[in-house]
Amino acid sequence: MARPTIAFLTDFGTRDHYVGAMKGAALSVCPDATVVDITHDIPAQDVFTGALELAAACPYFPPGTIFVAVVDPGVGSRRKGIAVEASGFRFVGPDNGLLSVALRDLKAPVAVELANPRYARAHVSRTFEGRDRFAPAAGWLATGVPLSDLGPAAHDLVQLKVPGAAVSPQGLWGEVLLVDRFGNLVTSIDRASFDRYAGGAPVQIAIGPHRLGAVVDTYADAPHAATCALFGSSGRLEVAVNGGNASERLGLARGAPVVVTRT
């Protein structure tokens, strides 16, 4: 029988003890689990970026993986803690939209509220539910405890609104969703929307006040230090600088408008 996998995503960073304490709480329940880090460098309290990064990572994990995601500005408040099962994956985290983007691409999600104290630590800190509620719940799921044992059904989960791509008389519109650690500006324009709009015709890309020409296949297809547009590994249109930082070069960040026009 394969060892269960528990994958963690947080905004905790790695300087403090928080990530290690969460892993310890999960392993105390299920010592046989394989523990994996997705990232702990989500910007502090940035639920939107956390949701996008979780959704980008989860398709590459094996069926049965349990994801613990904690980016939780409302820790200790009346917001629910939840566990969700969908398409063979299970997710544990706060009901603040953090799980919602990943769940949109999965089938038949079933959610419960983490209300059964048996599957949490004896004392649950109001400021560290990741350690005392979410990680133990993941550990119990890894041992084979059914989702339904963790608490009653949860409905009307919080959903994040993620901008997409839209066609207007002026062109194909989108916006920058996030800036990765290389400074690449990842937009809301997906390849399918781009292909439908462009139809193989030459295009111009406007991002903020800047203008770019053709889309290249990879960073190295652009001259060194040149700004370029391409489709990255997430399948979204990105603006990058070959060997540099596009966000710093262009002075742009999340929310910057992007327009593709046929030329």
SSE topology sketch:
Layout: E1 5-10, H1 18-29, E2 34-39, H2 47-57, E3 66-70, E4 81-86, E5 89-94, H3 100-104, E6 110-113, H4 129-143, E7 166-168, E8 171-179, E9 185-190, H5 191-198, E10 203-207, E11 210-212, E12 215-216, E13 227-231, E14 236-241, H6 246-250, E15 257-262
Parallel strand pairs: 1-2, 1-3, 3-5, 12-13
Antiparallel strand pairs: 4-5, 4-6, 7-8, 8-9, 8-15, 9-14, 10-11, 10-15, 13-14
Helix pairs in contact: 1-4
Portion in strands: 25-35%
Mind telling me which CATH architecture of the largest domain this is?
3-Layer(aba) Sandwich
Main sheet properties: 9 strands, mixed
- The CATH superfamily of the largest domain bears the name S-adenosyl-l-methionine hydroxide adenosyltransferase, N-terminal
CATH topology of the largest domain: Rossmann fold
Tell me the helix content: 10-25%
Helix and strand composition category = alpha+beta
Q: Note the total helix count.
A: 6
**Rg calculated over all Cα atoms:** 20 Å
Indicate the mean pLDDT. Answer: 96
CATH class of the largest domain: Alpha Beta
Give the overall form: elongated
> Would you list the SSEs in sequence order as H and E?
EHEHEEEHEHEEEHEEEEEHE
Number of domains: 2
Residue runs with pLDDT of under 50 for 5 or more positions: none
**What's the N-to-C terminus distance?**
57 Å
What is the tally of beta strands? 15
Task: Describe, in plain words, how this protein is organized in 3D.
- The chain has about 260 residues and is of the alpha+beta class.
- It folds into two domains: about 5-150, S-adenosyl-l-methionine hydroxide adenosyltransferase, N-terminal (Rossmann fold, 3-Layer(aba) Sandwich); about 165-260, Elongation Factor Tu (Ef-tu), domain 3.
- Helices cover about 20% and strands about 30% of the residues.
- The chain is built from six helices and 15 strands.
- Strands 7, 8, 9, 10, 11, 12, 13, 14 and 15 form a nine-stranded mixed β-sheet that branches. It has a six-stranded mixed β-sheet with strand order 2-1-3-5-4-6, with helices on both faces.
- It is elongated.
- The model has no long low-confidence stretch (mean pLDDT about 95).
